Amino acid sequence: MVGERLLPAAGPAAPGGVTLCRVGERLSCGACCGLYNRTGVSRAGLEELLGRRTARFRGVPRTAEAIDAYAREEERREPGRPRFAEVYRCPFLGFTGKGGDIPGCLLHPQSEGNGGVDYRGLSFYGGLACRDYFCPAHRTLKAPWKRILRAAAADWYAYGVLVTEHRLLGLFFAEGEARLGRALEEEDEEAALPAFRAFAALALDWPWRDPGHPGPGRDPFDDGTRRPPGDAPGPAGFCRSPFAPFFRELGSRFASPGDRDAAERCLDESLSRLAAAVRRALDAP
């Protein structure tokens, strides 16, 4: 299954009119293709995986038999155990785009060597799912929040991981709006970018993450009822904190009340920074 849209989608428009699948030639998300569905995920490891697949697929004849043989071999070579048994790790996810440096579908008609032919019907989910499916982040995040996420992303790796963290992002933006006293609008997005970038960096490298927690990167099909192994609700002390929902999403564990207090201050500052930046922008002449 592939999330990019290099051609106009034949299926429904993205919820809110903002797609998270691909952002021009700068970013794309391969989460629904299983890109982050492995233990020990690292940027370097995924770069090696996608680069190897891309190079190998260049030499595959564009016949159903050869493409199927490639898929079987790649599935056998798939490194690492899956974090989510329900999420298929598509072997046709490689590097695409003009620079050949963002994740995308090697079967897409505009991908190298395909001559405009759409081979996505040979993938596990087929081409229809690629055109019609939108992940929970599309449905649960408001349009301004999604635009901020797209504009703030440092690179494809961080972007794809954050797209799967829709519950955490929803908490951040909803609380930020509560402190602001209104919903974020399109004219607020530029002012909100620095505060969101700081929060995103914090979330990706959360200092108080439980060593046993698998880290960021959720099940891309999670409807709110499933959680990955090691992602059980945190200690009972969480319930006494106004930031308990954040702590759970971040996989937190604290060695002392002082650690929890420090984490609360860190989140409080992040949220206050967002509201203050938007207010300053509005008051500027």
What's the short story on this structure?
This protein is mainly alpha-helical and 285 residues long. Helices cover 44% and strands 4% of the residues.
- Measured as a percent range, the helix fraction is 40-55%
Radius of gyration: 20 Å
Q: How many strand elements?
A: 4
Question: How many domains make up the coordinates?
Answer: 2
Q: Segments where pLDDT lies below 50 for 5+ residues?
A: 1-10, 228-233
Range of strand content: under 5%
The SS-based structural class is mainly alpha
| Oligomer designation | single chain
Mean pLDDT: 88
Strand order of the largest sheet: 1-2
Number of helices: 10
Shape: globular
Largest sheet: 2 strands, antiparallel
Output the helix-strand order. EEHHEEHHHHHHHH
The termini sit apart by: 48 Å
